[in-house]
Every structure is written in structure tokens, then in C-alpha cells.
Amino acid sequence: MREIHRFRRSVARGATATLATVTLIATAAAPSSAAETDEANPPLLLAPYYTEADLTGDLQVTREDIDLALKWLGETSSSPHWKKVAKADADQDGVLTVTDVADLAQRMVYDDGPFTLLEASALDMQAAMNAGVTTSVEITRGYIDRIEAFDRTLIGSRPLNSIITVNPDALEIAAAMDAERVESGPRSLLAGVPIIVKDNFNTHEMPTTGGCGCWDDNLTATDATMVEGLRTDGAVILAKSSLDEFAFGFVSQFSSFQPPGQTLFVASPYDTPRTAGGSSGGTGAAIAANLGGIGFGTDTGGSIRVPSSYNQLVGIRPTVGLASRDGIIPLALSQDTGGPMARSVLDAAAALDAVTGYDPADPVTAAQEGRVPASYTEFLDADALDGARIGYVPSMVGNNRTTTRLFADAVAELESLGATIVPITPPAGFSAVLGEPSGSTNEFKHDLDQYVANYLSPSVEYRDLQQIADSGRIVPSRRNTYLVRNSITPEQYEAWAGPAGSHTLALAAGKELVTGMLDDNDLDALIYPSTNPFSTQGTNLRLSPNTGMPSVTRPTGQAVEADATITGAGVNLEFFGRDFDEGTLLGLAYAYEQSTHWRTTPPLFGELD
Amino acid sequence: MAARIAPTTKPTAKDRPMRTSRIRRTVIAATLGLLTAGTSVVATAEETPQPTYSVAVSTAQVALGETVEVTITASDVQDLYTYDLTIEFDPALFVYMPGSAESGTSGVTVDDPAPSNVRVVHTKLGTSPAASGDVLLATVTLRAKGTGVTTVEVPSLVSVATDKSTTTVSDVGSAEVTVTTN
User: Fold this and answer.
1) A12·B107 Cβ contact <8 A
2) Which of A175, A240, A538, A604 has the most crowded Cβ, counting Cβ within 10 A?
3) Shortest alpha-carbon distance between residue A90 and chain B (Å)
4) Which of B103, B110, B117 to substitute to test the interface with A, most A CBs within 10 Å?
5) B156 reaches A (C-beta below 8 A)
6) B-chain residues within 8 Å CB-CB of A8?
7) Of the listed A252, A256, A268, A279, which one is catalytic?
8) Residue A397 CB: number of other CB atoms within 10 A?
9) Which of B108, B112, B162 sits opposite A66 (nearest CB)?
10) Is A242 helix (H, G, I), strand (E, B) or coil?
11) B112/A7 CB distance under 8 A
């Protein structure tokens, strides 16, 4: 084939607008070398597939790369220009052919086919927005329409009640992101993606109630640090989701904006008489029912993982210290975490990227320095299970018929994907790790007082636990619990959560013991079921909080009639690992997901008519 | 400017160019993904219509200094993600109008002109659906610079499917055109 050096671009008929979009993307956010990449505005990072063929040094394939490949079509490895295009020689045959061009073009985040909001991933949204098929405004409007149509409407036997507040500025933010995309391209995988955060994350344009009617007026002056991170990545903060009042329990009962003495529950979108789980039940129900793109919850003792398991979502409980908790209404800072809840591992990984970082306001985040990858999406390798060594503790599997069946199936599937799965006899002390109680009883008053001092809006009348308990604007059955927790003295707190406190030492010992267990058995991760169908499984949820170590949970199947449990109920498999090793866990979960996409869409919440 | 065939639609009888050479050609599979899949694929191949191609000109007779549009279309295409074709012409009679190459399907189209031909490469982008059915592969505009009778032809077409399997078709088609003095 002869060499071609001077191809000129022309616009495909009927695709003028499309090309305009692409051209803008190609010229924008495209630093001339990786060294010039603006860390505050990272490009799309979806390594390796979307980055390894990049020719222009901006870690992404854009029109600029495709134009370059077309310009040098026919070049051979003996050409002086070869080094410019060698990375695009996908079949490595030493000549740049149209087949290589096709391969390169496929690595562009772009899709001019029909866009469907239902089950759309952040990547789907970026591809469609890049192609001009849809906009962030249209996507945001679509989710708002779904919230209006579905959330407080009686569907099945109960309304979902998953959303407390919709952001009045959401469409304006989306429009700004659309304008930015036209001007300079998408700033991240979250650019223009509507995100729902649990109503215990501070947001400056919406009140942060913590699920309590007593704090309906808590319009904070600033955002939680994690929300700031999401906005920096271009996310549209769409709404605040319902939660179990002050993130206490697993049923997601709340009193926000309800008459005194009245409460609401968050329903499962799969089985409306049942709970969506908690405490991040609103996020779980909303993301499962496609009321938003990606969600965020908090997890002190299971509050991300329970609703992820009940709602067939991917959830990340990060290492304590990976993401700042500053500006989140606390429950127990010894164990509090915030993390993504999403319909795919990719979405969860992209969302996690936005919220990591050292925050002086949450000193525990200092531990992450040098331990956070450029992007967790780098770990999303469909072959990640090949060669992995994963352990499980048989007693954590329990005896629920659905759970045991799904766990056995998962083990077989993971093995078929190249993993070695080994039963582990845990060391002495493992039961004590799982048995360490939650910090919430002894820490809530202390940590809440700090939040009140730092962030609670001056317009809120009820400013401590006693006032909250007496406000009449709470879930009535919680009053005694609030009073018990209000009775904890500073001395009791210090003896529990101080530097030499019993809980502090127990968590440190737990981390050491379980890390040693992983090391001694040469394990990449430990697996166990997050829950049974609509119920917890033993003390499995305690492992991550009681060690501070991370876990990633993802769907592993649903109950079938032959199980004689709760037919259709989802169960998640949790991958647990070492401190700041979220990347490994996400890679394993991703490979498992690519093998079988267990997630289903709740039939009651399909396309809007 | 000569009337153009609407993109992504099959030419109607009224729109159809005056002279068309419609040629059914043997497809050569250069990448054997389909051929290695066994007899069921063979059976499918028998049931699935093979693509056909045509090369047409907007007018069979053009005056010196005027333009003629050459159109290459395909019918019954399946999974066409990227393609590469060259239109050959007599450089004594025609010159390619730079930048006139277009495709009827979305994506990026580039041209590479030479004195006696123009190469057109088109690709879809990202996860966009590949073209299928009846596809306007390319139109190019030639300006008449000398008189006489000649044939415009497309000697080959390389097409790439989404799975990157590559197919080469030879003798895609040709069309005769006469350049007159006025």
C-alpha cells in the first residue's frame, strides 16, 4: 500500500454537528504531553483500553489521535515517522492499516447510537454526550422526571421514598457542564453525570437533614469535602437521598420534612413491601430504580453494603482514611466512611477517584499519601481474576439456602476465571475482631457535637442530642437511644475512642491480625456474602469497620423459588482486602462482573411512558 | 452543483444516476473470524444476503469545466465500521475537487487525492453502531478538464467490521462518463 501523508478531513453527511463536537473534544483538554496534564483537570482515565493507544500524550483517544493515524495510514515500522503512530499498530504487524484505524477509533469515548437512560453507566453518558446524542441537561431532566414520577408515588405496595431533596440548581449545573464540554471537552468520567448523595453529606444548596425532621433547616454554608471532589470532577449533584435517621440502622426510617411524630420508610424497588436496607437505603433504592447516575452512601457498620446487597448494586466501603469524612454528619468517626454505590464496578471506581485525597480537616486521611493510584479504573481488567488467590472463612458463608448456593456458584465461577479459592482457618482472635461492637454508642454524641460546632446551620433550633431527643421531630422510637448516647461522658468517650481507648486498640489489633491473615495465606482478598436475602449474615459486616480495611461488594445473584427463601432477592459478594488496596478489590470485582452481570433492573421502575 | 443523493437513503428511481454499473462481487475474507466458526455460520451465510455495490455518476455527459458527482453505494451491508476505497479516473479528463469526499453514514471521513485517483477512508467512532443495510459509502466531485469518453472506477474496497475482521472486495464497480466541449 502506498503511503498517504496528507489526508484532509471532511464531514460525513448528516453528521456535521457530530463532527463539530468531536473536533472540539479533540482540541480541548488535550495537553501536548502527559507531563503537561493538569492534575486538577485530569483527562478521561480508563486505562489500559482507552489510554494505551493514545498517540498525543493526553491519556485518551480523541479525534486528534484518529486524524494522526489517518494521516500516516500505510506507514511501516521502517518509516522515520513510525514512532509517532506505532502505538496505534494494534495488530503489531508493522504497518498501520485501516484495521488499526478501526481499533483506535473504537477506543474513543463516543457513541452516536441511541442513548437510553435506563441502566446507563457514566461511560455510556460520556460517549453519548461526546457524540452530541444527549446532554447533561437532558440526562439530568430525565432523572428529575423519573424522581417526580416514581419516588413518592404508590408503586407496588409502598412508595420508594428514596429522595429527600432534589437540587434546585441541578439543571443549571448541568447546563454549565454542557457548555464546558463544548468549550474544552469533558473534564472527567463524571462530567455532567447526575449523582445522588445521602442526606448526611453537606451540600451548600440543599439542606442536610441526616434523615431527621429536627434538622430540616440545616442549610450548611459549604459542601462536604467529598461533595467538593465530585463537583471538581464535574458531577451534577442531583439530589439528597433518604437514610435511616442519623445513619443508625438498616431499615431507612426517617422523619425529614414530616409532621411531628410521623416518619417514612424507604421501600425496596424490587419488592416494595420490603426494606431497601440501610442506612443508605435511599441511595440504594434510587440508584437501583435509575433515579440517578451514581450514588454515595456512608458506612459505619454496613450502611453502604447492606443497601448495595439488597438493591443489586456495587458498593465500596473504602479504607478509613482514603476519603475525607469532613462535612458528613458523623455516627462514629473511628469507623465512618463515605463511598460510592453504583450499577457497575466502572461507575463505582470512577466515583471513588473523585473523592480521595488528603484533607487536613480529617487527619486520618494523611495515611493515604502515596498509596492512591492515578485512577482506580486502571485496575479494571477483565482478566484480573486469572492468577488471583482468594480466601474465605467457611463460617462466614452461613447456612441460608440462597446465600450458600450463590456463594458456591461464585466460588466455581471465580475459579473458572483463573482464581484460586481457598478456605481459611482464621487465627485465634478473629472472632474477637468480628465481635468488636460499633463505635456509634460511645462516639455519636462526641462526634455530633463537633459537627454541630463546625457546620450546623445557625437557623437549626435543636443543637445537641438532648434537644434533638426532646424536639418531637425525630423517629419516635429512637428517643431512648438518643438519650442513652447523650449520657456518654467525655471520660467514657476517651476510654473508648481516645488514643489508648479500648476501641481504638481493638481496631488497630484487628487490622494487624487480619492483615497478617491475608499475608500468611498469601491472599489477594477475602470473600464472603455481604448479606442474606433481606437480612444480615452473621457478623460479616463487622470485618471491614473493625479493621478499617476496605471492601467492595457486588451482586452475585438472586434467590430462586427452589431456595424457598425470598424469591428474587439479591445477594452481594464482598471482596475484602488490605489497607488502600481498593484497586485490587475493584479489579477482582470487575473481572467477576464482566463474567456475569448479575444485576437486574427492578421491573416496576422501567422506562417512563 | 449537481444534485446529490440524500445521505443514508437508497436512491429512488427518479434520483438514480443515468448510468449505473451494479456488480455483484465475491467477498474475500481476509480475517477469518467468520470462517472458523463452523457450519452454523456457513448456513447463516447462505441465508444472509451478501453486500452488493454500485458506482454511479450524477450525469453521463458533462460539459468541460462542469462537475460530476461519483457515488459509491452498498446494499445489504452488515457491521461496517471502517472502510477504505479508491476512485480511479483519467487525469486528462478530470480533477478531484479537494475536500468534496463525503460519506452517508456518521463518523469521520478523510480524502487523499492524487492526480489520477482519490482515496476515501471512513470510520465510525467509539462504540457507535456500525453501518448496516443500504449505505452511501462515498461521494466525490470531479471537475471536467478535458474532453473525451472515460470510465470512473473503484477497483477495491477494504471494509472492517466491529470485531476488526477485514474484508476486501475487488472490482467494486465503474461508470462511464463523457466530457463534451459545451
Assistant:
1) yes
2) A240
3) 10
4) B110
5) no
6) 98-99, 110-112
7) A279
8) 21
9) B108
10) coil
11) yes
Going by C-alpha positions, the residue among A585, A598, A601 that lies closest to residue A556 is A598
| Closest of B106, B29, B119 to residue B72, by C-alpha | B119
Contact A50, B141 (CB under 8 A): no
Per-residue pLDDT of chain B (182 residues; tens, 9 = 90+): 232 222 333 333 333 333 333 333 333 333 323 333 333 334 454 567 899 999 999 999 999 999 999 999 999 999 999 999 999 999 999 999 999 999 999 999 999 999 999 999 999 999 999 999 999 999 999 999 999 999 999 999 999 999 999 999 999 999 999 999 97
Q: Find the length of chain B.
A: 182
Which phi and psi angles does A314 have, rounded to 5°?
Answer: -90, 130
For B106, the closest of A101, A108, A112 (CB atoms) is A112
* Under 8 Å between Cβ of B104 and B7: yes
Is A205 at the interface with chain B, CB within 8 A? no
CA A171 to chain centre: 22
Sequence-distant (6+) residues with CB within 8 A of A593 are: A314, A344, A345, A554
Inter-chain residue contact B102 with A22, CB threshold 8 Å? no
Contact between residue A286 and residue A295 where contact means Cβ atoms under 8 Å apart: yes
Tabulate helix, strand, coil % of chain B (nearest 5). Answer: 5, 55, 40
* CB spacing of A66 vs B125 below 8 angstroms: yes
Element containing residue A146 per DSSP (H, E): helix A136-150
Q: How far is B158 from chain A (nearest CA, A)?
A: 8
**Cα A278 → chain centroid:** 16
ipTM: 0.85
> How would you write A14-29 as a 3-class SS string?
CCHHHHHHHHHHHHCC
Say whether B136 and A13 touch across the interface (CB within 8 A).
Answer: yes
Q: Which residue in the set B31, B119, B128 is minimally distant from A113, CB to CB?
A: B128
CA B71 to chain CA mean position, Å: 6
Give the model confidence (pLDDT) of A484-497 as tens digits: 999 999 999 999 99
Grid cell in block for residue B38: 463452523
Interchain contact A562–B (C-beta under 8 A): no
Residue A303: active-site member: yes
- What would the grid cell of residue A242 be? 433518604
Q: Which cell numbers hold the place of A80?
A: 522515520
Of A6, A70, A111, nearest to B127 by CB-CB distance is: A111
In A326-374 the beta strands, taken as DSSP E runs, fall at: 337-342
- Which chain A residues have a beta carbon less than 8 Å from that of B107? 12, 15, 105, 112
Place of cell 504497518: A95
Instruction: At A583, list the grid cell.
Output: 484497586
Question: How far is it, in rounded angstroms, from Cα A395 to Cα B27?
Answer: 61
Cα-to-chain-centroid distance, residue A485: 30
Cell numbers for B3, please give them: 444534485
What single-letter amino acid sits at B74? Answer: A
Other Cβ atoms less than 10 A from the Cβ of A189: the count is 31
Residues A359-418 have pLDDT tens digits of 999 999 999 999 999 899 999 999 999 999 999 999 999 999 999 999 999 999 999 999
- CA dist B41 to A418, A591, B36, B37, B79, Å? 30, 29, 9, 6, 15
CA gap A206, B100 in Å, rounded: 54
Residues of A in contact with B167 (CB under 8 A): none
Look up the pTM and report it. 0.88
Q: Can you tell me whether residue A148 is helix, strand or coil?
A: helix
Question: All 3 cell numbers of residue A112?
Answer: 452516536
CB contact under 8 A, A13 and B112: no
- Upstream peptide bond of A157 is cis (omega within 30 degrees of 0): no
Per the listing, cell 440462597 goes with A402
